[in-house]
C-alpha cells in the first residue's frame, strides 16, 4: 500500500505527467490535459499538484486557484447587509480532482487544506473575504460542506467559506 501522508503539494511544472492523470470525470481530466497550461501562462489561474516523493512526476491530485469578486446580490441577504456596497474579493478553487487510483486515501482533503492555507497566506497581503468552490455534483458539495463551505443560495452549486472563520477566537480572560 502507498503511504499518501508524504504527499508533496506544489505548483504544476513541466516535469509533471499531466497526460497520465485520470480521475474519470471528463471535464476535470480534460482541464489538466488540455487547458491548465494555457490558464497558467495567461495568469488566469494557478494549478497545484500532489505527488509522492518517490514518484514526483505522477500527479495524484490537483486543484486550481484564482481570484474572483462576488457581487453582493450573490451572497445571502443576512451576510450582504454587513458588507460594503461593492463586489467582495474572494479566492476560487475552480477545480479539484484526485487520480482514480489514489481515491479514498484523503488526498482530496489534503488538497482542500492546502488551498485554504495558501489562501490564508495570501490574504495577509491582499484582502480576500472568502473562498469559493463550484461543486460539480452533490457528492462534491457534501465533501466541501465538511470543511464549513456553505451554499451561496439554496439552488446554487457555488459554495463559500468566509476566511474570518479561521481567525483565532478571543480567549476568555481569567481574573
UniProtKB/TrEMBL annotation:
<dbReference type="InterPro" id="IPR000182">
    <property type="entry name" value="GNAT_dom"/>
</dbReference>
<dbReference type="InterPro" id="IPR016181">
    <property type="entry name" value="Acyl_CoA_acyltransferase"/>
</dbReference>
<dbReference type="Pfam" id="PF13508">
    <property type="entry name" value="Acetyltransf_7"/>
</dbReference>
<dbReference type="GO" id="GO:0016747">
    <property type="term" value="F:acyltransferase activity, transferring groups other than amino-acyl groups"/>
</dbReference>
<keyword id="KW-0808">Transferase</keyword>
<keyword id="KW-1277">Toxin-antitoxin system</keyword>
<feature type="domain" description="N-acetyltransferase">
    <location>
        <begin position="7"/>
        <end position="167"/>
    </location>
</feature>
<keyword id="KW-0012">Acyltransferase</keyword>
<protein>
    <submittedName>
        <fullName>Predicted acetyltransferase, GNAT family</fullName>
    </submittedName>
</protein>
<keyword id="KW-0678">Repressor</keyword>
Amino acid at each position: 500500500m502507498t503511504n499518501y501522508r508524504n504527499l508533496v503539494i506544489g505548483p504544476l511544472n513541466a516535469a509533471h505527467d499531466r497526460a497520465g492523470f485520470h480521475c474519470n470525470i471528463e471535464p476535470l481530466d480534460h482541464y489538466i490535459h488540455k487547458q491548465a497550461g494555457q490558464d497558467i501562462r495567461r495568469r488566469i489561474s494557478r494549478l497545484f499538484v500532489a505527488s509522492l516523493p518517490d514518484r514526483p512526476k505522477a500527479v495524484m491530485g490537483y486543484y486550481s486557484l484564482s481570484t474572483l469578486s462576488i457581487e453582493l446580490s450573490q451572497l445571502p441577504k443576512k451576510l450582504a447587509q454587513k458588507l460594503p456596497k461593492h463586489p467582495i474579493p474572494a479566492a476560487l478553487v475552480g477545480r479539484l480532482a484526485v487520480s482514480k487510483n489514489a481515491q479514498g486515501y484523503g488526498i482530496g482533503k489534503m488538497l482542500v487544506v492546502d488551498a485554504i492555507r495558501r489562501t490564508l497566506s495570501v490574504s495577509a497581503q491582499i484582502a480576500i473575504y472568502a473562498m469559493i468552490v463550484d461543486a460539480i455534483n452533490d457528492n462534491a458539495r457534501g465533501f466541501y460542506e465538511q470543511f464549513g463551505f456553505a451554499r451561496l443560495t439554496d439552488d446554487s452549486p457555488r459554495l463559500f467559506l468566509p476566511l474570518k472563520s479561521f481567525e483565532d477566537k478571543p480567549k476568555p480572560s481569567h481574573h
